[in-house]
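step 4 of 6: structure.
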Amino acid sequence: MIHTYKMHGTNMVLDVNSGSVHVFDDISYDVIQCYDQDGNPDEERISDLLSIYDEQDIKDARAEIENLKNKNLLFTVDPYQKMLPEWTKKTVIKALCLHIAHDCNLRCSYCFAGTGEYMGHRSLMSLEVGKRAIDFLIENSGNRRNLEVDFFGGEPLLNFDVVKEIVYYARSREKEANKKFRFTITTNALLLDEEKSAFINEHMHNVVLSLDGRKEINDAVRKRVDGTGSYDRILPRALKMANERKNKEYYVRGTFTQKNLDFGKDVLHLADVGFDQISIEPVVAEDGSGLEIREEDLNTIFNEYEELAKEYVHRRKSGKWFNFFHFMVDLEGGPCIAKRLRGCGSGTEYLAVTPQGDLYPCHQFVGKSEFLLGNIFDGLKDNTVRDKFAECNVYTKPECNSCWAKFYCSGGCAANAYQFNKDIKIPYKIGCELEKKRVECAIWIKAQESGED
Amino acid sequence: MKHIKTINKSTLNQDIKKAGCGECQTSCQSACKTSCTVANQKCERK
């Protein structure tokens, strides 16, 4: 399978199964359009190109295409599916999302957690639950050494003393359990102060700082409890934290909705004010909420991604480097193919823990009783739901199996699939379209940064 | 080659026999939380 597309005058050709990326000139690009997905040329269609191009040029282009085929860089077959039983036979739990606080000091209108309480009641995780979650993770992680714990909410800074004690407890168990914990915290930064920042910088592998971009965009949806905007309070705190991270990871992370389809301006705004690790993502909101991304918005968003990609390359070449999360792709390395087939690991390797200790497939399923997996004290009760998640990979989802982007998005988000299709194996179509465009942009950027203009 | 420039020869199936150690980061623990992108993650061995 190959995928071809044009972007800003560059003809891109991706060989899906090998991951090889090529830039074609106009002749070779028109020639390869005459091949089927198995690499067989349609001689009649190629003959038609004689009215446009010189015969020798067409012959040369064909020879180059054949050369790449012979080198297994074009029209390669899928060698991975037969390995699937080996890669999926056993999974252990290696990451937990701890819902430290089912409460929040913001009232963001698009939040999938309601107003932070996940459609339940407001509550904070106790230290007892937090410690038991660490024990549960160690007990269920088999031989995996690297374990991840994400402090999430609601707003985890509302329960920061417990965060600290959980970190200390996990660290105290690392040596005897032969594990290494990596902590991440996702916060709106409102309550960040010197003491909390110092702790986060010392102990957290990554910090995700929530901010949507321009003040008017952020404040229209990310309101404080009293209804006022949050931008002015968040920005200085988030910037200070970003500047203090040094060699540790952070992202400033925002959401765009149908109200700011010009979200590229928000990405650039965040870069302009001083952030260099940026993620702005499409909202996942209910139909009719007034914020959801609609099919009729797609062309506008595609154009916005393409224009952002152009400006991104320009800035990175002119001393204003920044990183946009969804334009990151490592063509030389990146995750192994086994990971690319299975995706994020929700429901299998990755679970969410509520303040009461209940286990769900991921943070976005919390509160949906049909997805309750068990409790950290009593263990995983019924494997029926987990088995359904374990069955998810790009080959068991028909829409993914035939998609050129399957080894980049890895089957998409199960929570989105369930929200829109009530089936974790049927991907959320709008999400797929956006993901494909982002991958196209990411690969195009690689071509530009490799010296191809 | 005259007509085609190869940007990336490195292939996904290079490490097929070593794949699946599982030590890498879970995708949703990075920045996304709502829109899974796996290809921008790192391999723990590289």
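step 5 of 6: annotate
 - DSSP finds no helices and one strand in chain B.
 - The CA atoms of residues 27 and 39 of chain B lie 9 Å apart.
step 6 of 6: archive
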